[in-house]
Amino acid sequence: MVIPTYKRAHILPYMIAALDRQTYRNFDVVFVVKPSSDNTEHLLRKTSNYLNLTVVAQSTGHIVDAYFLGVKYTKGDIVAFLDDDAIPADDWLQETVKLFTEFDVAAVTGDSYPVLIKDDKINIIPECENPTAYSDNEFALFGHPLRGLEDYKNSIAISGLVYERGNNAYWRSHGIVKALLRGPSMAINGDVLRSIDLPGEWILGCAWEMVLGWLLWRRGLKLIYSPSVKVYHIVHGRTSSRDYLKPRNDLLWAVEAELLFYRLYGAEPTLSIVSKMQSDLFRIVLSLKHMRFNLVYNTRKIEGILLGNIIGAKWLLYKQLGLSYSPVADLKKLVKKAPPSVTKKTASGD
User: Fold this and answer.
1) Within a domain: residue 156?
2) 178 in any annotated domain
3) Are residues 208 and 254 located together in one domain of the fold?
4) What is the DSSP string of 139-208?
5) Residue 95, SS3?
6) Where does a domain end: 234, 258, 274?
7) Is residue 153 assigned to a domain?
8) 152 falls within a domain
9) To 10 degrees, what angle do helices 295-320 and 328-337 make?
């Protein structure tokens, strides 16, 4: 398995203990560590006494680069990705391997339970079932999945947006279903994964796993979700790739979300520019409507749509001219320009 980590020494012990409890024992771990001063390296050196563990230092790049740097150090038939704030269930690997053995699949993604850690105990946060992410009007305007993904648990819409056909609480009772890759844990056929060179064109990694899933799906490979593959995802305001408490990352995340359309445009024939424009207009109007609830957050959403399309148009122009371009340089400029204030999201302003 590959686990990128940065400044997580305070919660890594929960994951490490869970790895040591795995009922399936034939595994090794590659930790990709972005150097910090929080003692992560010391913790992993101690862990190597009882887990088959390799530590790789990441000196450049961002979260997607970290995952694929780790892939270079793998040799297994299956490669699992795990967020460094996820605690796998004791049978996580056993259930994953079982699915690869019993079904002709190239990739597996599983369930994720949000949890809080209090007094060293894992407390699962109750969830309500939500069967869809879009209203009927939203779906009609821009939510249609790419042709061929209509029966997938999650997909990419023809507008270039990520379409979740319900949350995990909704899908837990549905058993094994088709799904693109998504969430804090996933596993891919090792030989297939090592044949893929995913360009490091992200900073925060918004929807990068959906792009990887799309690449596998376009190869004609089978991808599934199973609720039997469980992890517990610690809720603490940050993930390994972003910090929701920082306004600069709110804006950057919104821009990267818009770029999904441009990443695939030209390679995915069922993407629709008209649907993309309808989506942009609808979401801008919706954010304007919610301005009174959360001015800063909704302003940032609108900025993300506009700036994402500006960078995306530049990207398309370079593609048309046959020139090389990576959006990372422009994304870094956004990080420098973002406001220093801190504003929490509210449910009514989302």
Assistant:
1) no
2) yes
3) no
4) IIIIIPBPTT-TTSSEEEBTTS-EEESS-HHHHTTS-SEE----SSEEEEEHHHHHT-------SS-TTH
5) helix
6) 234
7) no
8) no
9) 160
Q: Helices marked H in the chain — which ranges? A: 12-20, 40-47, 63-71, 92-102, 136-138, 168-171, 190-194, 208-218, 247-264, 273-289, 295-320, 328-337
Q: What is the three-class DSSP state of 229? A: strand
Q: What is the pLDDT of residue 37?
A: 84
Q: What pLDDT is stored for residue 339 in this prediction?
A: 53
* Local structure of 288: helix, strand or coil: helix
Residues 44, 181, single domain; the answer is yes
Burial (Cβ within 10 Å: 0-12, 13-18, ≥19) of residue 306: middle
The answer on 270 and 192 residing in a single domain is no
- The structural domain count of the chain equals 2
Contacts of 132 (CB under 8 A, 6+ apart): 139, 165, 166
pLDDT at position 297: 85
Whether residue 211 contacts residue 67, with contact meaning beta carbons closer than 8 Å, is answered with no
For residue 197, the model assigns a pLDDT of: 86
Interaxial angle between packed helices 208-218 and 247-264, expressed in degrees from 0 to 180 and rounded to the nearest 10? 20
- Residue 291 and residue 203 share a domain: no
**Residue in the structure block whose two tokens are 């040799």:** 75
Q: Are 234 and 116 in contact (CB under 8 A)?
A: yes
Last residue of a domain, one of 234, 268, 293: 234
For tokens 């792009």, name the residue: 211
Domain range for 299 = 247-338
Same domain, 115 and 73: yes
Q: What is the block-wise mean pLDDT of the chain (350 residues), using blocks of 10 residues?
A: 94 96 97 91 93 95 95 97 96 98 96 93 92 70 88 94 89 94 95 92 94 97 97 75 57 94 95 94 93 90 96 94 92 72 38
Reported pTM: 0.90
Rounded Cα–Cα distance for residues 106 and 59 (Å): 31
Q: Kindly report the CATH number assigned to the domain that includes residue 6.
A: 3.90.550.10
Mean pLDDT, the chain, rounded, equals 89
Q: Are 170 and 314 in a shared domain?
A: no
Coil, strand or helix at 38 = coil
Q: Which two tokens stand for residue 303?
A: 């900025």
Q: Is 128 helix (H, G, I), strand (E, B) or coil?
A: coil
